[in-house]
């Protein structure tokens, strides 16, 4: 059916007796809904609201030690018409001016009566406020400049067996500024982060870690960004010379073969810059006195940390001892 045909059919249905009756019913239904809404809005209802809190006009010289509550939870009873704008239009923040609630002991304090008064002003005098949480607010602040202290990481990180932490773990801020309403003890020389553990890492990871400070103090920033460099391990194989050590001065030893194959895992970024001089070592003192044993054990020296799971293709080589 084309749109034109559909339109003509709807037009015909509307002008029919059934269509006219349905249209009249819908009109009366809408009118009834409007009257019901008007009556409902005139009734008293009780609702709970979480009202955001915003502390304003804080001087630049002031640093808050503790944070104000994010919101005040209130139970309000009032006419539906008075509360509908908060239900449908959202709740704007309650703005508390710093100078209105500061006191002489370095705190911003609001008691239960003050909070109730602010909330009543927010909703209007006709509202009945039956519950308010928190019932009091106390925010410590200071005008002291603070002290810059180094951050000591308390983090444990482990890569997946196929990956490696390649490089130092770095932190976005190596120091933070500590604020306190009281004098900071001279013995307080650094701050630690809260313990943080990460395992099975398969890619470079960045995590936010909170700074741990004693009660009554504040760190700015309160958290630091920690970067853990992780990259995949890839297999590499190369031929390395065999060197015999502890050979007497009047003798020389020739091994067969003179080179052996070594396989190991290395971080991907170092694959093309792998210039570490690797040698396989054999110890002259381990030559067996039995003529029937014609091989000498070979092994690897201490390798850099970037070399993982290094193995030789053979554990021994044949040799010939020559007299000089």
Instruction: Name the CATH architecture of the largest domain.
Output: Beta Complex
**Biggest sheet layout:** 8 strands, mixed
Number of strands: 24
Strand content: over 45%
CATH topology of the largest domain: RNA Polymerase Alpha Subunit, Chain A, domain 2
Counting DSSP H or I runs of 4 or more residues, the number of helices is 5
Mean pLDDT over the full residue set: 83
Please mark out the parts with pLDDT under 50 across 5 or more consecutive residues, or reply none. 31-41
Tally of separate domains: 4
Supply Rg: 39 Å
Topology:
Elements: H1 3-15, H2 17-42, E1 44-56, E2 63-64, E3 71-79, H3 80-89, E4 94-97, H4 98-101, E5 107-110, H5 112-123, E6 128-133, E7 137-142, E8 147-152, E9 155-159, E10 163-165, E11 170-171, E12 175-180, E13 191-193, E14 196-201, E15 205-212, E16 217-220, E17 223-228, E18 230-245, E19 251-256, E20 259-267, E21 280-283, E22 295-299, E23 308-312, E24 316-323
Parallel strand pairs: 1-4, 8-13, 9-14, 18-21
Antiparallel strand pairs: 1-3, 2-7, 3-6, 5-7, 8-12, 10-18, 11-17, 12-16, 13-15, 15-17, 18-20, 19-24, 20-23, 21-22, 22-24
Helix pairs in contact: 2-3
Task: Give an overview in words.
- This protein has 324 residues and is an alpha+beta fold.
- It has four domains: 3-41; 43-142, RNA Polymerase Alpha Subunit, Chain A, domain 2 (Beta Complex), CATH 2.170.120.30; 147-228, RNA Polymerase Alpha Subunit, Chain A, domain 2, CATH 2.170.120; 234-323, RNA Polymerase Alpha Subunit, Chain A, domain 2 (Beta Complex), CATH 2.170.120.30.
- Helix content is 20%, strand content 45%.
- The protein has five helices and 24 strands.
- Strands 10, 18, 19, 20, 21, 22, 23 and 24 form an eight-stranded mixed beta sheet that branches. The chain has a seven-stranded mixed beta sheet with strand order 11-17-15-13-8-12-16, with no helix packed on it. It has a four-stranded mixed beta sheet with strand order 4-1-3-6.
- The radius of gyration is 39 Å and the shape is elongated.
- Mean pLDDT is 83; it is low at 31-41.
């Amino acid at each position: 059916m084309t749109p034109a045909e559909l339109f003509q059919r709807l037009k015909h249905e509307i002008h029919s007796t059934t269509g006219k009756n349905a249209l009249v019913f819908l009109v009366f239904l809408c009118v009834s809904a409007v009257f019901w809404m008007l009556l409902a809005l005139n009734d008293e209802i009780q609702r709970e609201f979480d009202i955001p809190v915003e502390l304003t006009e804080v001087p630049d010289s002031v640093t808050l030690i503790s944070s104000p509550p994010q919101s005040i939870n209130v139970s309000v009873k009032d006419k539906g018409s008075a509360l509908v704008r908060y239900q449908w239009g959202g709740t704007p923040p309650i703005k508390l001016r710093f100078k209105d609630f500061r006191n002489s002991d370095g705190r911003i304090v609001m008691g239960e009566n003050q909070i109730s008064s602010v909330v009543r002003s927010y909703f209007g005098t006709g509202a009945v406020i039956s519950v308010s949480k928190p019932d009091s607010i106390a925010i410590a602040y200071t005008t002291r400049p603070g002290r810059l202290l180094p951050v000591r990481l308390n983090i444990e990180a482990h890569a997946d067996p196929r990956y490696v932490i390649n490089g130092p773990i770095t932190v976005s801020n190596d120091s933070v500024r500590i604020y306190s309403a009281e004098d900071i003890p001279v013995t307080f020389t650094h701050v630690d982060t809260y313990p943080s553990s990460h395992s099975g890492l398969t890619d470079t990871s960045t995590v936010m870690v909170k700074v741990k400070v004693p009660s009554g103090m504040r760190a700015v920033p309160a958290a630091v960004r920690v970067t853990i460099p992780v990259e995949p391990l890839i297999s590499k194989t190369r031929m390395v010379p065999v060197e015999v050590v502890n050979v007497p001065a009047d003798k020389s030893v020739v091994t067969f073969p003179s080179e052996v194959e070594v396989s190991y895992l290395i971080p991907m970024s170092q694959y093309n810059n792998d210039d570490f001089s690797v040698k396989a070592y054999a110890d002259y003192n381990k030559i067996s006195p039995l003529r029937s044993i014609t091989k000498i054990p070979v092994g690897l020296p201490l390798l850099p940390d970037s070399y993982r799971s290094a193995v030789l293709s053979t554990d021994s080589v044949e040799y010939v001892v020559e007299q000089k």
